[in-house]
Design goal:
Length: about 290
């Protein structure tokens, strides 16, 4: 079947929205762009990303030169955690996404950003998906969490809780922080693939950093257009896996219909690692008001 991507491309896809990566399509400039994105971000993440992420980068040899081949990545992942990478041209429907994760397939965009988008792209491209997400799939516990998340999504069909599941994914897989013996570290793909947010999430006084609580996270709104005003922190990946291995039916019943929590809110029951000043947001509002 054919679909129209958000970038205005008409693409022929399989029923599960996968396509061939078509690795030979990439130009020398695109391979060079990957190399420069990789080198910059690898340097920024030293002392900021968790060791599990850095170990994943090394295990997958993502710096071998140019955009990685998905079939070669899948071979390495399959041997370690049973995961594979499948190419997609754009974001896929929720039910398709959940099915891929539940079957240990990670859908990754097969296109790379233009040079004009070198510092920021809103759509998830191959750099965000592969550099940001795939290294954590080397870690057995996180790999199990991703599968459990997919199965939880399939079980949520018709229950009206997809927004709640989206928030869980956003605040863990995309923008999660973890406490380590060396201090707080990054593991979320949306942060580790962003040069500016890699610094902001850990070092800026503006955002709240609150300890992870499943139902709290599932009810908390998030920002899609700027840095997060709140980040959630886990003690370990075991903690993350444990909460997703519980039956989700009762959880869905408790969160369904609850009013969403604003992005900057701190609740009385929160375990707060850092109470943010929210100065980043306030300064932007003041600057816009004076224009």
């Amino acid at each position: 079947m054919k679909i129209m991507t958000r970038l205005g491309r008409e693409v022929e896809v399989n029923e599960d929205y996968t396509i061939d990566q078509n690795w030979t399509q990439y130009t020398a400039d695109e391979h060079d762009r990957w190399d420069r994105l990789y080198a910059r971000q690898r340097e920024i993440l030293k002392g900021r990303a968790c060791q599990e992420f850095m170990d994943g980068l090394d295990a997958l040899s993502l710096s071998d030169g140019g955009i990685p081949r998905f079939d070669e990545l899948s071979e390495k992942l399959m041997a370690r955690t049973g995961w594979e990478i499948v190419a997609v041209p754009d974001l896929v429907p929720d039910e398709v996404f959940f099915d891929h994760l539940a079957n240990r397939r990670f859908p990754a965009g097969n296109f790379i950003r233009d040079e004009s988008q070198f510092n920021y792209i809103q759509e998830p491209d191959v750099f965000h998906d592969v550099f940001g997400h795939v290294p954590m799939l080397v870690h057995p516990i996180f790999a199990d969490y991703m599968e459990a998340y997919g199965k939880g999504g399939l079980a949520a069909a018709g229950k009206g809780v997809l927004p709640n599941l989206a928030r869980l994914y956003w605040y863990t897989v995309e923008f999660g922080l973890v406490k380590t013996k060396d201090g707080m570290r990054l593991y979320g793909a949306g942060i580790v693939s962003s040069p500016a947010e890699s610094i902001f999430a850990l070092e800026n006084p503006s955002p709240n950093r609150i300890h992870f609580d499943l139902e709290r996270v599932m009810c908390t709104k998030y920002r899609i257009d700027d840095y997060q005003q709140t980040y959630f922190v886990i003690d370990s990946f075991d903690e993350l896996l444990d909460v997703t291995y519980q039956p989700f039916g009762p959880v869905y019943e408790r969160v369904n219909g609850k009013p969403p929590i604003a992005v900057d809110t701190i609740l009385n029951g929160d375990k707060v690692h850092h109470r943010g000043t929210q100065s980043y947001v306030m300064e932007k509002k003041e600057a816009q008001a004076t224009r």
